[in-house]
Amino acid sequence: MENTVDRIDPKLVPQRTLKGGSKIPAIGMGTFGSDRFSAEEVALAVRGGVEVGYRLLDCASVYGNENLIGEVFEDIIQSGVKREELFITSKVWNDMHGKGDVLLSCAQTLKDLRLDYIDLYFVHWPFRNFHPKGAPPDYHNNDARPYFHEEYMETWYQMERLVKAGLVRHIGTSNMTIPKLKLLLRDCTVMPVANEMELHPSFQQPELFKFCTDAGIHPIGFSPIGSPKRPERDKTPDDVVDTEDPVVVRIAKAHNVHPAIVCIKWAVQRGQTPIPFSVCRNKYTSNIRCTIEDPLTDEEMEDLASVDQNCRLIKGQVFLWDGADGWEDLWDMNGEIATIRFD
């Protein structure tokens, strides 16, 4: 029997308006198990998440759990939740960027998720470089190469055809940079409505955030509390822990909440859509409940703006190519797209 005691009315959750007029909830539930949680555990969390009020679910083929999440979607729709009340996203993985592959990937995701359409479909990374599930920090793909715009547009034009075919309602980008987005906006015929990007108090990406919002691209923030359970390959000694920041801790004490809740409140009030993940019902319930009660003050929001330390946690080093200087090359740190250097 469904537990309704901790349920939040989805209609109370703030909504964002995407370019074109579609609505998206101001908070969603991620489904990446960080190589720590089984597909069964994630699917169970999705079921519980919908029960407590989540309507935005962020999926991806590479997470390896869409088939079990699809069983949940089928059950909840049959039990009375209308499909149009859900906003479901997924992503094409890096090894399915080739000619004809995007349609195949989307078709498999639709089959696995047991859906007729996807609300928002992302290009997961702007590279065809990929790693196997559970790859160690020093994993290296010998076929990896830098961003190649012509290849990316080959992928993007396939994404556009998915929209025209009615298989997806919207398309978006993920793990992009301003230089790459500028090229995409120059050449695309269907605009991305959202960019999924790492966003948390110690990594606020103000320039990219502003670029996206100015262009009508909605920022969706992953790792909103600093992803404490991210895979070991994404951890380095210099990483900052958002929930231990003195300003975050002070504000949490003032509101009598866990510091993670402050990170999520900040994200929603700033204007991005955070997609926290948890398999613990009390935690994911608290995450969505905090969006409808006890907002942060303007002064607290200003204080949190000062917390930014430009600390990227998901560096993507497993996607590097021979000749790259380091993970920074993936992110166009000097404002230019990195290329292969021959010394």
Can you give a write-up of this model?
The chain has 343 residues and is α/β, with parallel strands linked by helices. The protein has one domain (10-331): TIM Barrel, CATH 3.20.20.100. It is built from 10 helices and 10 strands. Strands 3-4-5-6-7-8-9-10 form an 8-stranded parallel β-sheet. It has a two-stranded antiparallel ribbon with strand order 1-2. Strand 8, helix 6 (206-214) and strand 9 form a beta-alpha-beta unit. It starts with 14 loop residues before the first strand and ends in a 38-residue tail after the last helix.
List the defining traits of the structure above:
343 residues; alpha/beta; TIM Barrel; 10 helices
Strand line-up of the largest beta sheet: 3-4-5-6-7-8-9-10
Q: What is the architecture at the second tier of CATH?
A: Alpha-Beta Barrel
What's the domain count?
A: 1
Under CATH at level 1, the class stands as Alpha Beta
**Radius of gyration computed on alpha carbons:** 19 Å
The total of helices stands at: 10
Strand content: 5-15%
Biggest sheet record: 8 strands, parallel
Distance between the termini: 66 Å
Q: Estimate the helix proportion, in percent.
A: 25-40%
